[in-house]
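Renewal narrative, Specific Aim 1. Our central claim is that a sequence can be written position by position from structural information alone. The example that follows is taken directly from our test logs and has not been curated for this report. It begins with the structure tokens describing the chain, in the order in which they were read.
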């Protein structure tokens, strides 16, 4: 009887779902028919494949504006993606209008495309923004010139240098730079940073790879994207190579010093290479930093007490080092301090770097055998092609994902951190359930020194866990030493000091591991938490010495 009842309930549910789908399709068909009748000759419905089932184009009569609504199968229960095309509007106005329409759609109990169009026209009217077409026409006419007169003038006058005519030479745009970084195979995207204006926080800076460079109207709400006109500058490592504010273009050489990105890279990497050689030549202990798992210390200073790989990344140059993304002034004993004959500045520099360097970290240990096995396959391929890198692999027992790094200088501070984690453990388990897994797919690099497995589609709950963890630690007075944005990853290999000394460089060639760029490594449950010390010793199972370990 129970089985028969369950079967009936299943059939009833399936019937209910079919009825709901049928009702949704009927309502959509009615809405589209109404739009076609209302926007006679100005409404176009396109059936598409993939993420969006339909695209509806609406062009209000006698207005210079077109609305593109991209609908999924779940419409009208989900908000459509909205794109706007208009020669009468500038980029700021289009961005603001799209944001307004998204907010309006989310607040509607039942989304209506006609209602969104009416809301948009009301918004334009209240803002005294003209989309009648006159504005666009005046823009064109202002820049338009009779072609015959242009030809006559060209025949009479030779082209003059823009400077001679009192005009500034044209400068390549931010969009040009974005496309160059995206499509030029000689440029490493993870070495570029973008400075942009945030509406609330003002000028901010993030890595180029942190953004989605698709059409801003087509990306998901959780994706980081910015209008191109908000971009203020681009950096290669620590040097600005394109700056709208002062008309500097050292990417294409269209303005400014006339340098190109090739010149900049040759100069910066040449200086960095010389610094690496000076560092490698020092008579220091030759322990393998792969075992200590430190990804992000500055290029001019391999860590002596090398730490965990969770410090996210700013690479220093000869004009000033950086530790974990925290820059230091030249006063702190750079290689350019030629007047420092007795080495006092170097000792002062080292003292403060050690003071700022983390010595403990909190990690999710990688226990998934698939991730470990695939990581070892990657290591094997790299080492077979470049045997000198055999000491750069991370042992399977030490593989982990770092959540944050800290400075715990005394045993009392360590006890305080352990107590903090114990008290907050119930909160951690409530944020992320055990069945929530992190999927690792593909291999990426930090400045060609570290190769790592990346987390794809990282659950928002995991980011919330990391943020809450840092909040709890800070509330207890614990010194959290994370100097840059959190990037969830598992380190697979990184260049050690002895290898850098032996080979004369600290880079891992991308071709050694590129065949794994789309390989799924595996999935790791968020089921453990370890407070680890950054010391040479290891536990019997190969993992870090852990003053405290917890099961979630």
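The sequence written for that structure reads:
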């Amino acid at each position: 009887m129970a089985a028969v009842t369950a079967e009936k309930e299943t059939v009833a549910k399936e019937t209910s779902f079919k009825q709901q789908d049928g009702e949704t399709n009927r309502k959509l068909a009615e809405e589209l028919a109404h739009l076609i009748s209302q926007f006679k000759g100005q409404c176009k419905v396109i059936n598409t494949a993939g993420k969006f089932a339909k695209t509806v184009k609406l062009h209000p009569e006698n207005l210079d504006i077109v609305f593109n609504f991209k609908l999924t199968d779940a419409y009208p229960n989900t908000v459509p993606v909205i794109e706007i095309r208009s020669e009468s509007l500038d980029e700021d106005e289009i961005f603001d209008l799209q944001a307004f329409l998204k907010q309006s759609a989310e607040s509607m109990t039942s989304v209506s495309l006609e209602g969104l169009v009416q809301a948009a026209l009301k918004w334009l009217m209240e803002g005294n923004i003209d989309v009648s077409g006159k504005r666009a026409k005046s823009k064109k006419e202002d820049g338009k010139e009779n072609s015959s007169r242009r030809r006559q003038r060209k025949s009479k006058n030779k082209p003059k240098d823009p400077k001679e005519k009192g005009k500034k030479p044209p400068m390549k745009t931010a969009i040009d730079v974005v496309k160059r970084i995206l499509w030029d195979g000689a440029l490493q995207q993870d070495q570029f940073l973008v400075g942009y204006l945030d509406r609330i926080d003002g000028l901010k800076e993030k890595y180029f790879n942190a953004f989605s460079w698709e059409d801003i109207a087509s990306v998901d709400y959780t994706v980081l994207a910015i209008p191109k006109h908000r971009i203020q500058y681009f950096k290669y490592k620590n040097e600005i190579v394109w700056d709208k504010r002062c008309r500097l273009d050292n990417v294409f050489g269209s303005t400014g010093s006339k340098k190109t990105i090739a010149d900049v890279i040759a100069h910066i990497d040449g200086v960095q290479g010389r610094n690496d050689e000076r560092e490698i030549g020092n008579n220091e202990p030759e322990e393998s930093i792969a075992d200590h798992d430190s990804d992000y210390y500055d290029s001019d200073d391999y860590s002596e007490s090398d730490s965990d790989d969770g410090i996210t990344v700013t690479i220093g140059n000869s004009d000033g080092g950086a530790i974990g993304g925290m820059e230091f002034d030249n006063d702190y004993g750079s290689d350019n301090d030629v007047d420092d004959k007795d080495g006092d500045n170097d000792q002062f520099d080292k003292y403060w770097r050690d003071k700022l360097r983390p010595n403990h970290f909190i990690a999710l240990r990688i226990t998934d055998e698939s991730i470990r096995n695939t990581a070892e396959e990657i290591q094997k391929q790299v080492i077979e092609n470049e045997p000198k890198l055999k000491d750069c692999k991370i042992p399977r027992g030490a593989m982990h994902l770092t959540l944050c790094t800290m400075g715990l200088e005394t045993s009392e501070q360590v006890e305080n951190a352990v107590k903090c984690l114990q008290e907050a453990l119930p909160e951690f388990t409530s944020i992320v359930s055990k069945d929530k897994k992190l999927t690792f797919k593909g291999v990426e690099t930090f400045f060609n020194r570290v190769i790592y497995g990346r987390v794809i589609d990282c659950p928002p709950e995991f980011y919330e866990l990391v943020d809450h963890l840092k909040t709890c630690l800070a509330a207890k007075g614990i010194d959290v030493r994370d100097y840059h944005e959190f990037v969830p990853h598992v380190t697979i290999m990184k260049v050690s000091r002895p290898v850098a000394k032996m080979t004369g460089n600290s880079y891992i060639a991308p071709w050694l591991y590129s065949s794994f760029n789309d390989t799924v490594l595996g999935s790791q449950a968020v089921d453990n938490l370890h407070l680890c010390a950054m010391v040479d010793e290891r536990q019997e199972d190969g993992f870090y010495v852990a003053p405290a370990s917890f099961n979630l």
